[in-house]
Amino acid sequence: MPNPVHQKDRAYRSRIGEADRAVISEKITAGWRAGHSVDHSFASCWDGGVMLASRRSWWRIAATIADQSTRPVTPRRAGTTGPRPAPVLKATGPNQIWSWDITDLRSPWRGVAFKAYSVIDIYSRMIVGWRVEERESDHLAVDMFAHAVTRHGRPTVVHADSGPAMRSTALKDLLSGLGIDQTHNRPRVSNDNPFSESEFRTMKYRPTYPRTFTEIDTARAWVTDYVSWYNQHHRHSGIALFTPADVHHGTWARHWQQRDHALQAYYTAHPERFRNRPTTPAPDAIVGINLATETEPNRLQAA
Questions:
Q1: Range of the domain at 133
Q2: Is 147 a domain residue?
Q3: Which of 36, 83, 211, 249 gives 31 a disulfide partner, CB atoms 3.0 to 4.6 angstroms apart?
Q4: Cβ proximity of 281 and 275 under 8 Å
Q5: Do 100 and 166 form a contact (C-beta atoms < 8 A)?
Q6: The whole model's pTM is what?
């Protein structure tokens, strides 16, 4: 054909005529000026007994209208103006800041895992609350914290990641009612909750860790023994090789004196093995999350 007609300009029997297109465009534009959507204008015309084209055709015609300035703008969820600020937490003693998280305990069945909840005091590293359940649940977390507060007292802040159980309204209501603040990790930042992550790593790298649990009672029994060992017997490298219970209850100072006495006696007997007189490590006086580097000494002194 010497002068072919473009497909969009061909006169198909099903094509909407220019007159009807003009009426539809006018009704859509009038609806926009009144703050109505295309669907509203289409339905209003239909309710008036007039069917000019299908609903989908009205939307196609709306997209071809040159002047879209009067088209209503759908409100959208307000986005953040920038990155969420890093949580900055500082503890100078036990029972000030708790951190918590939930980890999977694998089972032999695909897609099935038990959930280990754990609350840790970041200053002493002591586990102050825990439970093993078949699922993550708001009310189970609330019950765990209620028992932990009853047993250990109220912390100032509870920190966690941004999971559904951590940000639940039920937990928020419990903690706020007790005068306890909450902080959360930044999105996609894994190191905003280092204490809970470290504790779970310790648990899963224990030589006795079974790797899989066939039933929940077995998982609960193993975690019960683990928590007792961790709190009472684990020589934690982050607290100068004292146990979390020693630091939490302040009994570390007595053990520090014994260590220092033994170290100084060893130095006296073998000074040639040292460049300088050794000092006995003590737990940090200040512990926190995302703290600026301290310029002053950050070690406790034994009384």
A1: 95-239
A2: yes
A3: 36
A4: no
A5: yes
A6: 0.71
